[in-house]
Amino acid sequence: MKRAIPLMNKRGLRGTFYLCPKGDDYAARLAVWKDVLAAGHEIGNHSLNHTCSRNFNPQRGARGLETMSLADIEKDVVEAERRLREVLGPVAARSFCYPCYQTDVGEGLTRQSYVPVIAKHFVAGRAAGEYAFFNSPYNSDLHHLTSVPTERMPSVEMVGLAELAARRGHWIIFVFHDIGPARLGTSEFDFLGLIDHLADNRDRFWVAPVAEVALHLMKLRQAT
Prior knowledge:
This protein is of the alpha/beta class. It is about 40% helix and about 10% strand. The strands form five sheets. The chain has a two-stranded parallel sheet.
């Protein structure tokens, strides 16, 4: 928040920031995002508890997506949405980001996708995908959008991927967790390399929040 947003605002670029409004202090933590929303960015839903696979937990009997039902995950994301709206106000449309890029609950014979749950409540859902494959404006599943994680990725690679997506006429979604040194961090130098390229070529690149692009594609599909 302290690094990416000022850099983006300075260049007139808007994006989506996904939040998990868990805890008793959620109202105070969300309130600081009001100015971000007012600047034209999207505040997306990242679930309430950021539940991922229990395989990530070394403890025996740990809970995770494998122990949840569709009703459980729906309750979680709906409560997160209620809190976002309570503090930040209603929005015309919002996108969802699957925690850990994982989109199923249950395991084995009971494993099932919760993408349909997200489709009930959000205009789009951001997941993961194969490297160098992006979102077709006509054929992508808006509730299972592919994205490009950028941790430790150099700016020249990010720029190259952006150019490849543009040449195909596809939508690329870059994923940033932290700007700076961190386990899933992208260096500020590399982040600047990408956004400077996008800003300098805004006649060729449309940079916008996920929900806004998804709404545009919905209208595009309805018109054809």
